[in-house]
Amino acid sequence: MQKQFACALTHVRHEDFFLQKWIDYYGPIVGGRENLYVVIDGDDWEPKVDLTGITTEVLLDAPRRRIKNDRFMAKKMSSRANTLRKQYEFVIRGDVDEYVAIDPDSGLDWPDAMFELGDDGYIFALGCDMVQSPDETAPVDRTKPILGQRQAGFIADRYSKPFVISRWSNWAGGAHRLLNRDVKISNHFVLFHLALADETLAQERMEARGGTTQHRSFVGHQSDRLAAIGDEGLVETLPWDEARAIGIAEFPVEPDTGAPAPRPRPSRDPRTREQGLPVRVPARFHGLL
Fold first, then answer.
1. Is the predicted pLDDT of residue 108 greater than 90, yes or no?
2. Long-range pairs, 220-224, Cβ under 8 A, ≥24
3. What is the chain's mean pLDDT, rounded?
4. How far apart are CA 23 and CA 76, in angstroms?
5. Using an 8 Å Cβ cutoff, are 109 and 29 in contact?
6. Which of 50, 60, 232, 277 shows the greatest Cβ crowding within 10 Å of its Cβ?
7. Domain of life, per the record (predicted)?
8. Over residues 150-178, mean pLDDT
9. Helices marked H in 105-184 — which ranges?
10. Does 280 score more than 80 pLDDT?
């Protein structure tokens, strides 16, 4: 049986805004809602999103401690992705607040861009962690694309993630790496992480997930991330193409030996902040998502 082109897979908990955005974004890429797969974490809530035509599954036994949850979901989602691989040439897998775009300057569409996986059967998208900067004071219009309304972020090793497979692969560590695979950073795929693009939206998400009643591991992580909004490190930025070149060159190798790394490593550039290399997203990406 001939395989279909691609599907997209995500998991979600107490999330509506980004789930709707994920559906709207990836649906056209994979050829329709029938090629979208959503794993709903827990039966203690119900998405307020139209899931008609989308394959859904409710997962009941996910642990509520962050590290254990990351490991649990990596295993569960890897299993589902590898099963889907029997039906599709490519399986796109990512968090519901992560969106992979093709650099418009590449001139590629999705079928052409996938050639980059090659015989390895995977690729890491270069990560850009979008963070509301001190000069971006207006709230986002949630009915319009976020890129353009928000232009500040960090080219980040921690969000340079393996987002698509075409051969048997298993994610680990919150889907930041693949087991037994070296990092291979794409030349044209960019993963935009939008969780901190708007402070109000980020706070609403934390409250929807239980706020301070969650396990302290989640509270600590989410609070630390919220504290990054308004970071002064976004005042002075690097040119996008320079930061991109640094990430592509340095994220895939061990800093001491230059050997291939099993997960992306931070840049050694002295301008690197804790969150990554500060940038402004070029106009060519505005309006994509």
1. yes
2. 221/66
3. 91
4. 21
5. no
6. 277
7. Bacteria
8. 95
9. 110-113
10. yes
Q: Are 173 and 263 in contact (CB under 8 A)?
A: yes
Please tell me the distance from the alpha carbon of residue 21 to that of residue 244, in angstroms, as a whole number. Answer: 25
| pLDDT tens-digit series, residues 184-236 | 999 999 999 999 999 888 888 767 666 566 556 554 555 566 566 766 678 78
Residue tagged 């998502």 (tokens): 289
DSSP symbols for 191-206: EEEEEES-HHHHHHHH
Residue type, 155: I
Rounded Cα distance between 168 and 178, Å, is 10
- Residue type at 71 in one-letter notation: R
Contact between 9 and 80 under an 8 Å Cβ cutoff? The reply is yes
- What is the spatial distance between Cα 268 and Cα 243, in angstroms, rounded to a whole number? 12
In terms of Cα–Cα distance, which of 206, 249, 246, 247 is closest to 226? 206
